[in-house]
Amino acid sequence: MTTTTRTKSEEHRAAASESEQRLHRRLRLFGLQWFLFYIFALSIGDYIVLSASPVYFQDWRAASIIILSIFLLLLQVFYFGRNWLQRNRRWPPARPYALVLWAICYLICLGLTYIDRGLVWDYWLVFGFCFAAFELPFLIWPLLCSLLTFVLLSGLVRWPLSLADLGSLGGLMLTLGSATISAITIAHLFSEQRRNARLLQELAQAHSELEEAHQRLALSAAREQELAILRERTRLAREMHDTLGHALTLVSVKLEVIRRLVKRDPERCEQEIAETLQVTREAMNELRASIANLRSPVLGQCSLRQAIASFAQRLAARCGWELELDLDLAPALEHLPGDRQEALLKIVQEALTNVEKHAQATRVSLQLRSESGRLLLSIADNGIGLPPVLQARLAAAAGNGGSASLASSGLAGTDPSPKRGHYGLIGIRERIQELGGELYLCQPAGGGCQLMADIPLVEAPHEPQREAS
Hints:
By secondary structure, the chain is of the alpha+beta class. It has helices at 2-52, 60-85, 95-115, 123-133, 140-154, 163-261, 266-292, 304-319, 338-359, 388-398, 423-434; strands spanning 322-328, 363-371, 374-381, 404-405, 438-442, 449-456. The protein is built from eleven helices and six strands. Strands 1-2-3-6-5-4 form a six-stranded mixed β-sheet. It is rod-shaped.
């Protein structure tokens, strides 16, 4: 498509250039023809007047006629010569410039007519210059001024008007009208051709801009594709961490338990092996579901609230936690888009799994409530707390006893390879930020760790009713 656009752009540009050159050639030819006629008419008029009045050679009038005629001729050479030499000269010329040249021609012809009334016909040359220097509708004013001056100075109209005067005036108007109509027609044709050349030039420019736009669009599409690949890699990394990572961690813990119990308590060992096999089967099923649709199978079978409660209770039973569960959610939240429900469930799962892997806690509190169109999540434990490095960063970001955003704590940097043990927090932060929310961490005075999230909802609940936990 880009090649076709480029070909059309080049064709239109070539056509516009050819049309513009053809117009300039015609204008130059017209100017040359008019200039030759100008020389011929001016020479014949001066010759007739000077031949009929040889007495002019005995005083200043002959010299004045010749000098003024030469000056008038040089003025025409200056105007038409510039158009001839400069191929890209614009037409019509600038109006102030054209008005100055027309006024000089008008005054020279007025001076020639003052010397001899027979030279009044030189005003025909002023008529021709009007058509060469002005464009409609402004052309009417210098043309009308020249015509009125010619009629008044020629003596063709006398008052009172006789039949012969009317005949002379009618013949003059017929001649001048025919010449004017012809000149206007020619000027209109030139104007139309110039307009067509300009349209072709604009079309060529539009095609050129379209070609550049296509190139920018292709470049943007390539960049968007690269960005989509990076986003997909990040998403797959989170999915693998949330599925295989959790399962392998649990399998590792249970295998360690089995190794210790294999001789002391064979019955308990068999139970742990069965549970490990069950965890492995669940991980495989979840991996297949993630590959097929990357949607949690839990949400297809129950509500968001039930899925969160079920996961938290299973994990608490397995880890021996004392669980405080407070899910104060409006029923309307069950109608959130599936991707937002999935993200909320993954956030809770990842946070609780982090507690299982790192906190060594015996008591866990999970609170999730909706308030003023926002979801407020809080997960607290009585474990060993945050790593010392992260504690120092949080203290620097929020002060003692306060809470700080994970982004302001320095953990949420742009480093593509996070430190070991921090990937879970970074995955939680990324999910919350995708939902437009903010993640906070703090270490309560009594010990342990508290994770808080403030997430906006797509739609605020329509009814203030709450579902009891």
